[in-house]
């Protein structure tokens, strides 16, 4: 499925809720279920920096906590010049819940869209359930 304006906007809007007093680096994510429902997520930081949660994992954990486990695409927005790229921890969590060929759209404030997939982001990923 190609990137849609609606979900790009959902990821951008999610970044406006980011709690980022330490990095001042807001990130937003929009995770789309196979039914077309959208879960938005933002990064949420903590004074103990290592406890911070990335936008992608916020969106995934929101969806899974509401019993949604089937996803069709993920959009990730950063206030960056070039499209943002998810961290290694998020790549592992994404690969747990999303199919290898699921599209991931990396977004920036320049409106550039980089299309990739879960498998391209984390090839040869660790999967216990296979
Ligand atoms: N961050 C995300 O939320 N997603 C990414 O893909 C990269 C990094 C967050 C973590 C931290 O709150 C801030 O961005 C700076 O690293």
Automatic annotation (TrEMBL):
Entries under InterPro entries matching the protein: APOBEC/CMP_deaminase_Zn-bd, CMP_dCMP_dom, Cyt/Deoxycyt_deaminase, Cyt_deam_tetra, Cytidine_deaminase-like
CDD domains documented for this protein: cytidine_deaminase
GO molecular function, one term: cytidine deaminase activity
Keyword Metal-binding: yes
Family matches, as Pfam families: dCMP_cyt_deam_1
Cofactor (UniProt): Zn(2+)
UniProt family annotation: Belongs to the cytidine and deoxycytidylate deaminase family.
Protein name from the UniProt record: Cytidine deaminase
Highest classification ranks of the organism: Bacteria, Bacillati, Bacillota, Bacilli, Lactobacillales
